[in-house]
Amino acid sequence: MIKKEHRQINITMVLKVMGWLLMIESGFMAIPAVVSLCYYERDCVPIFTSALITLIAGFALNKGLHPARTNMAKREGFLLTAMVWVVFSVFGMLPFLFCSTPLPLTDAFYEAMGGFTTTGATIFDDVEGLSHGINLWRALMQWLGGMGIILFTLAVLPMLNSSGGMQMFNAEVTGITHDKIRPRISQTAKGLWGVYFSLTALCAFLLWIGPMDLFESICHAFGTVSTGGFSTRASGVCDWDSIYIYVIIGVFMLLGGVNFSLIYFAAHWRFGPLKRNATLRSYLKIILLMWVIYAVAILIDGFADLRNLTVYPLFQVLATMTSTGYAIPDLKIWGPLGLALMVPMMFFGACAGSTSGGAKIDRLMVMVRYLRNSVKTALQPNSVAVVKIDGRVLTPDLVSKTVAFLCLYVIVSATGGVVLAAMGVPVLDSFFFALSCTTNLGVGPDAAGVGPGLAAIPDCGKWVLCALMLIGRLEIFTILILFTPSFWHK
Amino acid sequence: MRIVIAGAGEVGSHLAKLLSNEEQDILIIDENPERLFVLDSKYNLMTITGNPASIQGLKDVNVGRADLFIAVTPHEDSNMLACSLAKAMGAKRTVARIETYGFMEAANRPLVRGMGVDHVIYPEYLAAQQIITALRRPWVRQWFEILNGEIIVVGVRIGDNAKLCGMQLKDFAYTHHNFHVSAIKRGHETLIPRGDDRIQAGDVLYFTTRREHVEDLIELTGKTEYRIRRVLVMGASKIAVRTVALNKGEFKFTIMDRDREVCDRLPMRCPEVNDIYCGDARDPDTLVDVGLDTYDAFIALSDSSEANILACLTAKEADVKKTIAEVEDLQFINQAEGLNIGTVINKKLLASSTIFQLLLDNDASTSKCLAMTDAEVAELEVKPDSKITQAPVKDLRLSRDMTLAGLVRNGHGMLVTGNTHIQAGDHVVVFCLSGALHKVERLFS
Fold first, then answer.
1. Rounded mean pLDDT of B218-242?
2. Is CATH 3.30.70.1450 the right assignment for the domain spanning B139-220?
3. Taking CB atoms and an 8 Å limit, are A166 and B44 in contact across chains?
4. In 3-state terms, what secondary structure has residue B220?
5. Superfamily in which the B2-121 domain is placed by CATH
6. How many angstroms separate the CA atoms of A169 and A77, rounded?
7. Which of A59, A488, B109, B192 has a Cα at 20 to 30 A from A418?
8. Residue A195 pLDDT
9. Backbone angles phi, psi at A136, to 5 degrees
């Protein structure tokens, strides 16, 4: 039953499906257009125009193409997943180009890519000056990208529910292995999006009953649960200076960094997986450890006020580890330690299967255990050492894949740093920004009062950062595989 | 439907793939994570590592919510145990793969049901049945009959000398009212034909017809009828033993096996066997010694698909009229058919036939199913008010991957044409390509 395998990639089919996805994006874009209209803003028209352009492009692709074959195999799945993030950003930047506070092309794309990949590095200086429509679109982009564009389409489009869809699920969802929570991929996608939606709604509600108004609480809920980090205020969350808001946003960032399938099970009163999960325990332990380090440093520095010891450092740790990138006002005074600790925190991020970025704590655990085994076998050549996670032995294949991933992660972000430095960006900023974009954190060293920040990055540097964000969001392999010759022919 | 499959062996994996293509919710549990890994990354299903015959394992797959529990591990006893446990934990229906005839006997059904095993699959028994049918009608590739042969589906390979060669199907239908060409297997593909398709030499055509017209097909397809008496079997496998046991004096079986010990024990396992030789049937000299040319049929049932195919080819050269090979690798089935090996036996396809039957019909008593490599034939009873009864067939706008071939109404068989209006209570024979069975099921319920 060996069917003749088609060597050529079915690019027409990929584009046709892309048409579907673009129509979905235009639907999302219509939301800020309507909101903008409700506020009687001039930006209503440009956003609506962008949505229309997206819709027409999507419709044309979908109806104009008649692929000879309709199958989507492994490679089509990879290609579509990688492409959809770029294409979505291209169309997603249209409102920024047309609006009443227009951005140049590079900046608009950087803003859009930063949105979809939940990096949350904003280019706008005067966020308060933006219209409601534009602000909502920024928040919505993150929200869509947080759980995943493909995952959303898998939940709503039954046509992708085939083995091609499986490949796209694997290509987009983060982590070493990809847990399914229900037997069919569309149910899994629906379950995860259900959890995501409920968390967001709850977060928005809790913020709204606090000191925020409805619009801002919705925008911040989008930015928090997706661990994106766009805000409607230039100084971010600290603008309100409210313990309540720090706590609510902190809690939801914490949840945004947890594997969503665990939240799904917990919501269905199944706590077994939650208790067994070693990654979750490590996640919480690392948060505590980092908090203690900060608290001790603050104590030594003599800022012994209760808020400075508890809320601020915890908030800062959560914002960094989950790659959200909201900042607290005092980070500047914490000095070098504040900045230095950010590097390992953003590198490893939070749990796999969450909306956070970074290389994920799951991989950190595999790495630590693997290194420990290596040391052990060096001393005891006859000992048999395996890597165990949650009581399950990981196959050597998976271990080596994980180690390879970490190597690639370092190589990719370091290369980005070198390229930026070669463009004349100060060395610290180059490497910090490169890592920060690869891990989808989006915060520059200027947040801690060091260096000029994003202003130091030239236009071509921003394109490099965009590439890093995408590579980081799709966890490297999905993008890297497109650049291997064997992907395209033979 | 939520289906739990216990055991990701050959049969389990095959079922999981097929059923996930049929849009069912599949959970598959096995102790070996490496076997599951491939399934998990490629197919739309969920895998769980665990022992399917343990309470913990069954809890992990949430067996209480399963509509169907299929135990297909290699061990009969763990299959029975798993089914027992699953049933007690709330699974709606359970199916176990078995290896002993006792569990299947009608007299023992209440006992087996009492253990919590609703249905059994016995692939070796099904294979033996298929072999006996093939030996009775040597010119036929596939034979599928419903309601005592009121409607019969016959798969025949079209020889070069057949009258039909080169004919367009619409012309064929015009001159031969008594046959419905339901599917064509050409090369590696099965097609549901249209009127302008042309019949080519080497095609396997699936005709649907009534019993009294079957004999006409022999001439139409350029075949000759002959009777089989002496049969040589290579490999003393379970299927071979079962086949000999099923035989009621029609055929004389001779079994060959390489293993001396197996040969020594064979008379005890299988007293009805005519002759036993110890020797390697892949060696042409041995075959000559056994007197291959004096046999009417040759059946290759060893463990290796390749050896079976090659041995059958050798037998063909020695002018044995009918050859039957057990081919377990699905990829090789089409190759084997292309090499003109008469009938191909595959345990996985036989097992999936049984499961499809269960999918189509809750108690599997009124339906029958035959799984082929990339298509299925099913018999279904039409329920009152189902979609299919709403209009004549030509107005139903059926999708292109299925066709209605024939039906039995009030015990009388007839072929389906565009003007046929299907009624409740009819038994309908449907051909569909793989992955379309759930569409058929929707039409009929």
1. 87
2. yes
3. yes
4. helix
5. NAD(P)-binding Rossmann-like Domain (3.40.50.720)
6. 9
7. A488
8. 92
9. -65, -40
Which two three-digit tokens encode residue A360?
């994920």
Residues of A near B (Cβ–Cβ under 8 Å) read 1-4, 161-163, 165-166, 170, 180, 182-185, 187, 392, 395
Look-up of token digits 């649907």: B208
User: Which among B29, B40, B44 is the top mutation candidate for probing chain A, defined by the most A β-carbons within 10 Å of its own β-carbon?
Assistant: B44
State the sign of the Cα–Cα–Cα–Cα dihedral A95, A96, A101, A104: negative
Residue A330, pLDDT score: 67
First to last CA, chain B: 14
Nearest-Cα distance to chain B for A351, in Å, is 21
Choose among B34, B37, B334: nearest Cβ to A1. B334
Query: C-alpha angle with apex A256: A252 to A261, nearest 5 degrees?
Result: 125
Residues in chain B: 445
User: Does residue B77 register a pLDDT over 90?
Assistant: yes
Band (pLDDT 50/70/90 cuts) for residue A2 is: very low
Distance CA A248, CA A267 (A): 19
Tell me the mean pLDDT in the region A163-179. 77
Pair type for strands B368-371 and B375-381: antiparallel
CA A249-A251-A252 angle, 5° bins: 65
User: What's the mean pLDDT in B377-398?
Assistant: 84
Share of chain A above pLDDT 70, in %: 96
Chain B environment of A170 (Cβ under 8 Å): 41
**Residue B71 pLDDT > 90, yes or no?**
yes
Contacts of B125 (CB under 8 A, 6+ apart): B101, B104, B242
Angle between helices A185-209 and A132-147 (to 10 degrees): 140
Q: Which residues of chain B have a CB within 8 Å of the CB of A187?
A: 25
pLDDT, tens digit, 9 for 90 and up, residues A86-125: 999 999 999 999 988 888 999 999 999 999 999 887 888 8
Q: Cα(A223)–Cα(A256) distance, rounded to whole angstroms?
A: 10
Residues of B in contact with A165 (CB under 8 A): 44
The C-alpha angle A273, A278, A280, rounded to 5 degrees, equals 80
Q: What ipTM was reported for this prediction?
A: 0.75
Q: What are the structure tokens assigned to B243, written together?
A: 């086949």
Q: What CA–CA distance (Å, rounded) separates B327 from B300?
A: 9
Is-same-fold flag (B139-220; B350-443)? Answer: yes
- pLDDT of B363 strictly over 60: no
CB nearest to A183's CB, from B27, B33, B374: B27
- Residues across chain A: 490
Q: Pull the structure tokens for residue B107.
A: 């007299």
SS3 A489: coil
Helix residue spans in B32-143 (DSSP H)? 33-42, 55-60, 76-88, 109-114, 123-136
Q: Is the pLDDT of residue A78 over 90?
A: no
Measured distance CA(B335)–CA(A1) in Å, rounded: 8
Q: Kindly report the CATH number that applies to the domain delimited by B230-320.
A: 3.40.50.720
CB count, 10 Å around CB of A322?
35
- Per domain, the residue ranges of chain B are 2-121, 139-220, 230-320, 350-443
Among A40-49, B262-271, B355-364, the range scoring the smallest mean pLDDT is B355-364
Tokens at B216, concatenated: 């006409």
Q: Which of A3, A392, A395 sits opposite B188 (nearest CB)?
A: A3
- Residues in Cβ contact with B401 at an 8 Å cutoff, skipping those fewer than 6 apart: B192, B432, B433, B435, B436, B439
Q: Does the global pTM surpass 0.90?
A: no
Write the CB contacts of B371 (distance below 8 Å, at least 6 apart in sequence).
Answer: B18, B349, B350, B352, B353, B356
Q: Where are the domains of chain A?
A: 8-178, 265-345, 361-438+452-484
Look at the domain B350-443 and name its fold: Alpha-Beta Plaits (3.30.70)
User: What's the pLDDT tens digit per position in B178-195?
Assistant: 888 888 888 778 888 887
From the CA of B26, how many Å to the nearest CA of chain A?
5
